[in-house]
Amino acid sequence: MSGTSLDGIDVAIVDIEGRRIRPVAFRSTAYPQAVRNAILGVSNATTTTAQIARLHFLLGELYARAVQDTVRRSRIRAVELIGCHGQTIYHQGNRELFLGKPVAATMQIGEAAVIAERLGVPVVSDFRTRDMAAGGKGAPLVPYVDYLLFRHARRGRVTLNIGGIANLTAIPPGAQRDEVFAFDTGPGNMGIDALATEFTRGREHFDRNGRIAASGRVNGSLLDRLLADPYYRQRPPKTAGREQYGAEFIARLKRTGLPLRDLIATVTALTAAAIATGIERYVRPRMRVDEMIASGGGVHNRTLMGYLQAFLPGVRMARSDEYGINADAKEAVAFAVLAHETWRGRPANLPPATGARRPVVLGKITPQ
To answer: Angle at CA 166, nearest 5°, toward 164 and 170?
Structure first.
């Protein structure tokens, strides 16, 4: 898995037997700075087909090497199947007019054939497109795995992933598969990371432990204007991405003239407030929320998690580590499980989460 934060390649090795899911190893490999810059250059941008094609094959090589290194370091004898989400460079979940026709579109790069050739292992990739062909938004896809891992007979649980974008899965007590729903709440770490990179003059690409945000002041009027975005009033299913919270979003923030540390504090509060708003508007009317189980890089941001607890008093905050799933590895684990479902020919999208007309088998298989 390599997400919208562009921090690198997460590799999880997972042992799956029946419905038992056991993470075995995890390793994260940072993108070289030149590769990160190149991905940013083609993400939601006017670029060339040559640049995209070259990155597509280069990322396949980097993914294969990352898997090899993880297998070697963990002393696993062999892996039998690889699930590769790929690097999203464009995602438009809603249908918009293009050449006179309503079209949805997505693109994840990282050539699966390169991975299969280098490792001699079948690869499942391109997970989003089949759901979109069935009328869905192609995301979020992790809710199916959240349902398998975290459903509880008596407790209402919300699983929260704070990556570049924040998304949640709502799992009612004793939920059946078709009762689970999910959506992207809005920004996760994406805006914080971009501003922190500028604040530290490139020495850091994120706000370590939320220290910069803690040193700044939340601007209430700016926060209110940001929360007035129609996205937060849009009913699920819905998805968000770099097209909403990327370079143009950061440019608008900087035009306010506020100090960078205050912008970082305000955007950190926005991430927490958007999550809480999503829960209050769209989750609590449908189920009780006893517990939130968080994962993703955002769990390390103490200021962000403090804001979130303040916005959601009475909700127990936990990390997925408490349930045997490394908080940094959760999405990589999820795509291993989704690949396994594809290999078995089992549908793994949740229509209430993506808006698809029906459950479908996700992904494409590249044989070894």
So the answer is: 150
> 6 pLDDT exceeds 90?
no
> What average pLDDT does this structure show over 328-338?
97
Residues 155 and 33 in one domain: no
In a domain, 1, yes or no: no
Kindly state whether residue 226 falls inside one of the protein's structural domains.
yes
Q: What is the pLDDT of residues 262-295, one digit of tens each?
A: 999 999 999 999 999 999 999 999 999 999 999 9
255 vs 5, higher pLDDT: 255
Would you put residue 228 in left (φ > 0), alpha (ψ -120 to 50) or beta?
Answer: alpha
- Residue 186 belongs to domain spanning: 143-323
The CATH number linked to 149 is 3.30.420.40
Closest CA to 86 of 104, 62, 105: 62
Q: Are 279 and 166 in contact (CB under 8 A)?
A: no
Q: Both 300 and 270 in a single domain?
A: yes
* pTM of the complete model: 0.92
Residues 80-101: tens digit of each pLDDT: 999 999 999 999 998 999 999 9
| Whether 158 and 116 share a structural domain | no
Neighbouring-strand partners of residue 319: 294
Is there a domain that residue 57 lies in? yes
